[in-house]
Design goal:
The protein is an alpha+beta fold. The protein has 8 helices and 30 strands. Strand 29 and strand 30 (471-475) form a beta hairpin. The longest helix is centred in the last third of the chain and has 21 residues, at 348-368. The radius of gyration is 43 Å and the shape is elongated.
Length: 484
């Protein structure tokens, strides 16, 4: 495989690409073979891609993404001929077609210049992929059949069994239609502030031909009109304000969700679903096959339990892949657990039972672990207070076999418990045993009595000696005389 083909398939998670001779050797000579690829213009920007196989193939699986614009068709149990690897088209939206093989299947990737609707059909040894906006694919621009089956023919008649409306999260309005036939073809189009859903070859009972006034639900949806147009049923959703709509089908339930476009809602949506957008349209396909397709698209390491069984009819148009995965899990009662880079998918009850067993095993291990003793010095707090906190039933960190005592003289805790519990107790003491901030308050009191006086001045004195006939005369500064 040349470098150009590798670049064209980058990001499509096919794993290790194997050449046709090696695949044929690994899976035997009975595998079907893709003999040729031919592109036929249909006028305008419509193109029909003819995939010719050696034997009539089973229903192929297909999906599309918008960034980059690609359509992928998976041919199970098929290998490409040695001369079939790529086909340059350059007509309308189709740029080229490349192939790759791995694990007994061939993926045909139609590289597009821009996102475009498509439709697949099988006639004998040929798989036709019609791409573009011509009349042949007009019905597919929303939800025309895109996978599997024989040559297109009149669809099986179906009936609308119920029309319901509910208010979803963040003020979203959700119209739910229950179909008698999950294979009912449906188109979804927007015209101004109307979302028009057309169910082909579908009858609407008389009691459902009415207008639903859902203004009181406080969603972008005001009214819903259900009418019969010939052999088709048409449901018109009248909206107001800025909104975005998402239509999808899971088995016999067809849903149209209309969300208000606000900055807050967009922020929440971005946090919930950030995967690349893709389109899935499958009729009665195995759930395991859809999960495998999502694993290929995302590159996830996915492990699917053997208890995941059943089929699903799925119609998702331009939705994030993680939202598509959530819809599948919720519809089929499945749950997901992620361990490092591996995703485990199993029935919800199986995962709950497994986690319960793990918790019980951990409790048994806890009961069998040896006890260890530790002396924990408390510097600032009272050891008795911390011991009471450890023994409290509301906040106890001690196991059922653990114990704690206090040495009041040294303010030390004597703890006996398992090693992991001792680590938690040490962490708790480290956070609680801190000095408490103190505030120093000083005061000075001055008492003044009524007889309190204060003198301010200077005393002067002179000292002198004078001798006379009468004796010695002395003069001092304190006015006290001194005898000689």
């Amino acid at each position: 495989m040349n470098h150009t083909i590798k670049n064209g398939l980058r990001g499509w998670a096919l794993g290790l690409l194997v050449s046709a001779p090696l695949v044929a050797a690994a899976f035997g000579a009975n595998a079907n073979e893709l003999e040729s690829i031919q592109a036929i213009p249909l006028g305008g920007d419509a193109v029909r891609i003819d995939l010719t196989l050696k034997e009539p193939p089973p229903a192929p699986h297909s999906f599309s993404v918008n960034q980059p614009a690609r359509i992928a068709i998976d041919l199970p149990d098929t290998t490409p001929a040695a001369a079939v690897n790529s086909e340059d088209v350059g007509i309308g939206a189709v740029q080229k077609v490349v192939t790759a093989s791995a694990q007994g299947r061939t993926r045909v990737v139609v590289e597009l210049n821009y996102p475009a609707g498509y439709k697949t059909s099988v006639q004998g040894r040929h798989v036709y992929v019609t791409v573009g906006s011509g009349s042949a694919v007009a019905a597919n621009s929303s939800f025309g059949p895109q996978s599997g089956g024989q040559a297109a023919g009149p669809a099986e008649a179906s009936q609308i069994e119920n029309i319901d409306f509910r208010r979803g999260a963040n003020g979203a309005g959700r119209m739910l239609v229950r179909l008698s036939n999950p294979r009912t073809e449906a188109d979804v189009n927007e015209q101004g502030h109307e979302v028009i859903v057309t169910f082909h070859n579908t009858q609407l009972p008389q009691n459902l031909m009415q207008r639903l006034d859902v203004t009181d639900f406080a969603t972008p949806v005001d009214t819903i009109d259900a009418t019969q147009h010939g052999d088709d049923t048409r449901i018109v959703i009248h909206t107001s304000g800025n909104y975005e709509q998402l239509a999808y089908q899971s088995d016999d339930r067809f849903a149209v969700e209309v969300k208000p476009v606000t900055q807050t809602a967009q922020t929440i949506a971005n946090k919930q679903y950030t995967g690349k957008r893709l389109t899935l349209n499958f009729q009665d396909i195995s759930v395991r096959a859809v999960l495998q397709l999502l694993a290929d698209f995302t590159g996830l390491n996915m492990v699917v339990s053997d208890n995941v069984t059943g089929n699903i009819t799925l119609r998702l148009h331009d939705v994030p892949w993680d939202q598509a995965l959530d819809i599948i899990l919720q519809t089929k009662g499945l749950a997901m657990r992620k361990h490092d880079n591996v995703v485990l998918i199993a029935p919800a009850q199986d995962i709950a039972a497994r986690e319960k067993l793990q918790l019980e095993a951990q409790q048994q291990i806890q009961q069998l672990m040896p006890l260890k003793s530790a002396f924990i010095q408390v510097n600032y707090a009272k050891a008795a207070d911390i011991a009471a906190l450890l023994k409290s039933q509301q906040n106890s960190l001690l196991s059922k076999r653990g114990s704690v005592s206090v040495d009041a003289r040294t303010n030390t805790l004597l703890v006996q418990d398992t090693e992991d519990r001792l680590a938690d107790i040490r962490e708790l003491v480290h956070k609680l045993d801190v000095p408490v901030r103190q505030v120093l308050i000083q005061s000075r009191i001055v008492i003044a009595n009524n007889d309190f006086t204060r003198e301010l001045g200077t005393r002067f004195g002179v000292t002198g000696l004078h001798t006379s006939q009468d004796g010695l005369i002395s003069v001092t500064g304190n006015a006290q005389g001194e005898d000689a």
